[in-house]
User: Fold these one by one.
Assistant:
Number 1:
Amino acid sequence: MIKPLFHRLKRPLMAAFVGASTTLAFAPYQMWPLAILSPLFLLLLLSKQSPKKAAWIGYAWGLGQFATGISWVHVSIDTFGGMPKIASVFLMTMLIGYLAIYSALFSWSLNRFFPTTNRVRLLLAAPALWLVCDWLRGWVMTGFPWLWLGYSQIDSPLANFAPIGGVELLTLLLIICAGAFTYAIEQRQWLHLFIPGVILATGYGLNAVSWVTPNPESTTKVALIQGNVDQAQKWLPSHRWPTIMKYTDLTRANWDADIIIWPEAAIPAFEFEIGSYLSNLDSAARMNHSAVITGVVNQGDDKQFYNSILTVGETDNGEYSFDVSKRYNKHHLLPFGEFVPFGEILRPIAPFFNLPMSSFSRGAYIQPNIDANGRHLAAALCYEIIFGEQIRQNITDDTDFILTLSNDAWFGKSDGPLQHMEIARMRALEFGKPVIRSTNNGITAVTDYKGEIVKQIPQFETGVLKADVVSTTGNTPYYSVGTWPLYIWVFLSLVIGWRIKE
């Protein structure tokens, strides 16, 4: 009895272990070859299995990947969300179980429609189906495209494909490499190992291509304030003004910067509550020919709450006035962090779903760039930086930089902030625009247009990062075209694969 059970569970258990190892491909470990080896072993485990068994193997792989890869989510809902331990564990189990559905869907569909081990299955169908499932995960219920395999390649030769097709193209190439290795191993067709060799060599070659050109004449002096405010005390009424004055004092010492940037929700109050203070800050910034950008929580005339970005000082908006419509208001909200999916149903049933800061409304998908001291910044608040298409559509011909404000204090000393920074670096490389990232307790950093971190300050310390940021001219192919070529490639791959499958 035990032996047959172990035999049935052997492949799913191996898949769970392989899936868990995938996390090591991402920051802070950055063992990028694992992003090829992990799907390679998954494809080997799926070989000659029924669609039903394949689905369980794929589901186990997903459980392993997300149980280890997004454990930082539990820190926010357990440590800072105030949930009972049993409730937070239950919620995390549900989230991980849901995300694993997509790797199960990939595995089932691959073995259902392309069961024969051949080139069609491994070089056309598998990469196409993998992208389809990733796209679904990044779209259903507002999407959660975290841990797309392509992000792990930010420091590998494959990173040079990002300006051509974004993180999706990197993911596609990884699965093609994994498929080629799988075919070579299963069929003893070793010449197919040239496929990953050619892909990696092309990646090296693309390093010499410059899609955009730095413009030194547009250098901007920025100062990023990392307040390192204790998340557990930040919203206490007694800490409101000490927190605000901490940022004020650090700002006062850096008026020589063109733009001073505070992190997400740096001001622990609704904007309408501190109008006089913001008017004074606006006047001081103008007097010093500077601009201050800060995250702030807003409540509009519609009584809806918004996670916003406010600019005072040298800006096209004129002198400060309270107007939520002239703020950047976050569009993509973090599930369970900023909104509760199906909240109208869940909140009455289980009061523990009434998490702090979980009732925000969405801003528009496309919003004007932030204007600060003559510079134009395409904004992304925290979690939004993972949505590359949203960033792409918010970049204009006038955009100088990508700006992302975050408060990763919610995630403690977990891998979350490091993975978050890795994703921000990918956005810089995709669009050929420097990324300016200001956070409460790290990682506060500036990247160049190639996604390389040019300056950062340590986590969990109060500090100011001062840097000269150079904007660029020109556009990358990915910015100009987006993901449409990959949509077409996936469609043709599945159609051709279905027609010629053996």
Note: The chain has a mean pLDDT of 92.
Number 2:
Amino acid sequence: MQIGVQNFVTRTPPRFDTKEAERTHSLQRLAAACRIFGRRGFSEGLLGHVTVRDPELPDHFWVNPVGVAMHQVKVSHLVQVDPEGKVVCGSGMVNPVGLLLHTAVHRARPEVNAVCHAHALHASTWSSFERLLDPITQDACIFFGNQALIREPRVVRDPEAASRFAAGFGESRVAIHAGHGIFTTGQSIDEAAWWFVLMERCCEAQLMAEAAGKPTHWREEDARWLASVLGSPTFGWLSFQTLWDEIIASDPDLVD
């Protein structure tokens, strides 16, 4: 079905009559986010994990399994884990370190329904500078005042370290983990995935700009205004719909 411009801008996040319908929707969007990440080259080998809360069991999460390439993930591949990271639905294996980090953030942030992380080239490279993104472009302004920089723990091996990681995330929408990469969150998987795609591009833009010279910054009041308008959960959700429309048209098997 063709979606006209007027219809597109009036799209709103869906409402569900049942938890089962909500779960089906979330898992389809989770699989789509994985495909989009894979297509954009955000994952290498077994790296990269995306989680979303289960609508009925909020302390349980769905995640893509290790061993399945991001660009090939289907709904049927996804697995559900309990608060301890044990697989309770599905047959795939999961990344234990990734789950430690994601579970800690979900536990500390009840409003966060989805968390995205992958070893995207530019985001991982930018994280080595241990700096927040600067408001040098309109896109980068979206993250102004809503980024965390997590220097320690640099390596997470146990739940205690994961809790410190989540504490370092604070209430921010996104985080730069020193020497590791970026983590993005959202009220929906759509929103979290869009922030990841956009932030990776912003990291690329700042690396390019600083290689060429000294970029100027937007004024703080203008950056804050853009962050409040273009950085809302609804805007993040709506922005992802362009990616959803494209991936479901090209990869309809992702819902299998």
Note: The longest helix spans residues 189-212.
